[in-house]
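User: I'm new to structure prediction. If I give you an amino acid sequence, what do you actually give back? Let's try with this one:
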Amino acid sequence: MAKVSVIVPIYKVEKYIKKCVDSIVGQTLPDIEIILVDDGSPDDCGAICEGYAKQDLRIKVIHKANEGLSEARNTGINAATSEYIGFVDGDDYVAPDMYEVLYKNITEQNADVAVCGLYDCYTDRKVPQYSGQDEFLILNNKEALGVALEGVKFSVNAVNKLYKKRFFEEIKFPKGRLSEDAFTIPKVLASAATVVFDSSPKYYYMHRGESITTSAFKRQDFDVISAYEQNLELVKKDFAELTKQAEFRLLWAYTYVFDKMILSENLEDLQSYKEILKRLRKNTPKMLMNPCFSLKRKAAMLVLMVCSELYKKLLRGQKSRMARLNA
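Assistant: Good question. You get back a string of structure tokens that encode the predicted 3D arrangement of the chain. For your 327 residues, that looks like this:
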């Protein structure tokens, strides 16, 4: 039996999938199972995956009807035969020793989850998500959940982590929802006895102009708010000491959705826009007092308190700069 099962959901990533799969095939931990889940991709991804399977017996290809990222991951989990599983998105890639490092850490520390650092990658540069000094931390569930909600050292991303598969027997990725990681990974961390974090960046998280996170506003974007409402309830029930972190993340979710709404060319849901604007203005004092918010975000909220049109202008300028960086 392989030591680690790596699950790769694949949909419309024909330009990137070879770099992704090559990085997994070339892992310094050779005893791995690679599960490529073709989620009904309409391009040549399915054929590319089959070509890899013919060359490497460790690769298993699953073709299925398109149901979204969550169901692709759930399908891969059901097919996995290893005690430990990890996830890589089809347009990202990983360092050659990522799974060797994660496997070593999770087994040596008898942990339930192992986490490594990641790079946020743009067209012309890559930036470590965590820019502090090198750290190796052994955390309990409360500590790990708090760190993930703060999102500085690591976040609720499903990738850049190795898990004991047993957690996903009851915890599933939610079908048909965006922000699926935010619904799922906090529950895993809350259920874990031990989480080990190695800050060395080993995962390359690609930011692309056409990605879900940079797309125009749609009703499904409200899923991120629903996810962090659930997480706040989880924290209030079992980890009251993390309330500030959970409140921070929920208010962050509101700003994420609001920023998409205010930049929309033809926003139809004006009532929701007004309700979120009212909520953000009401909670601005709380955001200013919350240490999890950056000075930049606090300054932005002060601008929003005074003038939403000025806030929109500043946001457009920021988006334009990011677009040039990603071009």
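You can read the tokens as a compact description of the fold. Here is one thing that stands out. DSSP finds eleven helices and ten strands in the chain.
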